[in-house]
Specification:
By secondary structure, the chain is α/β, with parallel strands linked by helices. The chain is built from eleven helices and eight strands. The protein has an eight-stranded parallel β-barrel, surrounded by five helices. The longest helix has 21 residues. It starts with a helix and ends in a 5-residue tail after the last helix. It binds flavin-adenine dinucleotide (FAD).
Length: 289
């Protein structure tokens, strides 16, 4: 399943992102989450990869499970931080043997565990990895984009130039970091088009799962908690997890409706390995299968 073919269709492509479960208990929950979400017939599922190779085997096993056991069209990620060229080809050879067609290429970040030593020939940027992979494999490649600018970027403009480099080196679609104001996304797409980037750019949707998680992730990912969202959070009892979850579903539903109205090529859900919010949002949007 080459993802770019899906984005050629007129219908919005629904994708769902998961991370590999960390232990046996999480693996059992993961299985039922994927079973639940598969019933909604998403166009594809995607599996993240821990920087520094921390989830190398777990990511492979998870891709295998979702693709072979659950029969879901699957995209495998590779985060190159700290990995040498041979370690990257080792991972990719395994995905190729499994029958994976699309690889989402990201640089990744330094693992928090300070003891990790990067390979001396690891790549500095995702664009370099993309060029390296494109020369050696027939995979369709995707890459990440940041509507509010990547946290390390000098400016949004320089970040878009660096995105252009990823496209010029072989990436064929972009999945965007999540945002809580669609204006960030629409402005970003326009700036990318002005910079000569013509590939599909897919909005990432991160429903509010809990106030604590939203605050933590927004710091790490550089996604602004807008005044509108903050007001909604403030109007709730933060100790009532159901109320917070429902607000997140309602907020994301409205966000997706406005995105779809503008003709976005798809919606990419950061599921955080949970099924309830994504299911409810897709039901609200009448986009189940
Ligand atoms: C959809 C999505 C999925 C993700 N999945 C994962 C995952 O599975 N595993 C994981 O570990 N992380 C994941 N991440 C997080 C990602 O690894 C981090 O955001 C990381 O900090 C940047 O990765 P990148 O591929 O965008 O890096 P890059 O494209 O390399 O950019 C990193 C920074 O370097 C700058 N830059 C790029 N090229 C140059 C250059 N030539 N000179 C100077 N500066 C440059 C960019 O502007 C940016 O600020 C994901 C992010 C997104 C949006």
């Amino acid at each position: 399943m080459h993802v770019t073919r899906l984005y050629e269709s007129k219908k919005p492509v629904i994708s769902m992102e998961f991370f590999p479960p960390r232990n046996d208990a999480a693996a059992r929950v993961f299985s039922s989450t994927v079973d639940d979400l598969a019933k909604l017939k998403p166009d594809y599922m995607s599996i993240t990869f821990g920087a520094g190779g921390s989830t190398r085997d777990g990511s492979y096993q998870t891709v295998k499970k979702v693709m072979i056991e659950n029969k879901q069209p699957t995209v495998a990620y590779i985060a190159g931080y700290g990995l040498g060229p041979e370690e990257i080809t080792d991972v990719l050879d395994k995905y190729q043997s499994l029958g994976v067609d699309t690889i989402f290429v990201i640089r990744g970040d330094k693992p928090k565990d300070g003891t990790f030593t990067p390979h001396p020939r690891s790549f500095a940027y995702a664009s370099e990895m993309i060029a390296f992979i494109k020369k050696r494999y027939d995979f369709t490649l995707g890459c990440a984009g940041y509507p509010e600018g990547h946290v390390e970027a000098k400016s949004l403009e320089s970040d878009i130039q660096n995105l252009k480099c990823k496209i010029d080196n072989g990436a064929e679609y972009v999945v965007a970091q999540y945002f809580y104001d669609n204006a960030f996304f629409f402005d970003y797409v326009q700036k990318c088009r002005n910079a000569g980037i013509t590939v599909p750019i897919i909005p990432g949707i991160m429903p509010v799962y809990s106030v604590k998680m939203t605050r933590m992730l927004s710091q790490v990912c550089g996604s602004t908690i807008t005044a509108d969202l903050q007001n909604r959070i403030d109007s709730l009892d933060a100790d009532d997890p159901d109320a917070v979850l429902q607000m997140g579903i309602d907020f994301a539903t409205a966000q997706c409706q406005a995105l779809l109205k503008e003709g976005v090529p798809g919606l990419h859900f950061y599921t955080m390995d949970r099924s309830h919010s994504t299911t409810q949002i897709l039901k609200n949007l009448n986009l189940c299968g």
